[in-house]
Design brief:
The protein has about 140 residues and is an alpha/beta fold. The chain has one domain (about 20-140). The chain has helices at about 20-35, 55-65, 70-75, 80-85; strands spanning about 10, 40-45, 50, 85-90, 100-115, 115-125, 130-140.
Amino acid sequence: MKKYKQKIIPEIESDIFKNLNPKDFRKLIIKKYNEKLKGKSVINRDLGIKIEFINKGRNKISYGSILYENKAVTILILDKLMRYAEYNNWGDRKESDNDNIIGYLNFKAKAIINNKKEHIRISVIVTNTGKFHYHHEINKWKK
């Protein structure tokens, strides 16, 4: 069986997030997520699973950890990243997770952000309802 490889690499510029204070930065992320992704889903080409975009993923990006331009700008191409990401491995649930979480499907994806190739880690939450929801992380951008 031939292993899936990401062949389509989305490109984006982070100009939209330049010179914003943290409060406006988070507001813009939430606005863009709600406009482009909330309530929608994509089929991942590697595993063929339907991944849904819900508020939990939005909150993970905007409030769950350190926020920076490269991470934020991926919201604008997240549907493509989720579609073309490569499955990497399984992650067990944490003791602090809700009871409905079984574990995590971990993916890796590539994107060109500000003309530089970046590697993005995407974690998809697997629930006992048979649904898949996402959150993601990206390497920090060093100026």
